[in-house]
Amino acid sequence: MRIGFFDSGIGGMTVFHQALRILPNEDYIFYADTLHVPYGEKPKEEVRKYIFNAVDFMANQGIKALVIACNTATSIAVDDLRQKYDFPILGIEPAVKPAVQSCEGKRKKVLVLATNLTLREEKFYNLVRSIDHHDIVESLPLPGLVQFAENFEFREEIVVPYLKEKLSSFDLKQYGTVVLGCTHFPYFESSIKKIFPEEVDIISGSIGTAKNLKRILEVRNQINDGKGDILFFKSGNRVEDKETLSNYNELLVKLDRINSLTTGV
């Protein structure tokens, strides 16, 4: 059986890429709900309908685990999805806890970058409230980055001015860690680094989610020695045209380069 990955668009590829590195021999389904992207600017109940329709489709394909590789979808639907399905469902949430732990000793603030819907959700509010005892967490919605990613617009000469405008009212020297709270945002890590002081850490939850997936499959004795086969779907339609498949493969190559720059591996 395959492992399912779901996102509103191509942002989930940043999490999927980490899973491919950790579990290269598994077979996968990657489902991007491109007809309805972006989720972060839509009404909550509308987005919930899209999410359940997509997961119903993937469940019918036969999957042994599902990763909701979308912070917005996780924040509004993961608990209800777990009640409906009997396979493991992993979500992703902004990496606020390690950011706060790192910054408290430095007397620095944390800045969470995410979508409007993620930042408005009670799940995010409760996460911050349970961890942020010294009121050091701030947030900023950056919906433009989602649109840039979905349009395959990664040029720094386009992205950096957008970031400078959105961050113009922030004193960037106050921050110790920037949390990428949307899976679309790691594509722009190099642009974000150009805005903040060199000593500021930039983190996301992608690696932790992939490691947790492997741990769960090991506990369930469901690690497969498959072919590393990947099926791509866009809003329920199998992706078979060469141009789109080539674009997806180029994204994975791009993420390899980002990972090598970040980790030196």
TrEMBL record:
Keywords attached to this entry: Cell shape, Cell wall biogenesis/degradation, Isomerase, Peptidoglycan synthesis
Residues binding substrate: D7, S8, Y39, G40, N71, T72, T183, H184
GO terms assigned for molecular function: glutamate racemase activity; identical protein binding
Pathway: Cell wall biogenesis; peptidoglycan biosynthesis
Active-site residues, Swiss-Prot/TrEMBL: C70 (proton donor/acceptor), C182 (proton donor/acceptor)
Top-level EC class as recorded in UniProt: isomerase
Reactions listed under catalytic activity: L-glutamate = D-glutamate
Gene3D superfamilies xrefs: 3.40.50.1860
GO biological process: cell wall organization; peptidoglycan biosynthetic process; regulation of cell shape
EC number(s) stated in the UniProt entry for this protein: 5.1.1.3
Keyword Isomerase on entry: yes
Keyword Cell wall biogenesis/degradation: yes
A Pfam family of this chain: Asp_Glu_race
Function text: Provides the (R)-glutamate required for cell wall biosynthesis.
Family designation: Belongs to the aspartate/glutamate racemases family.
Protein name: Glutamate racemase
Organism phylogeny: Bacteria, Bacillati, Bacillota, Bacilli, Bacillales
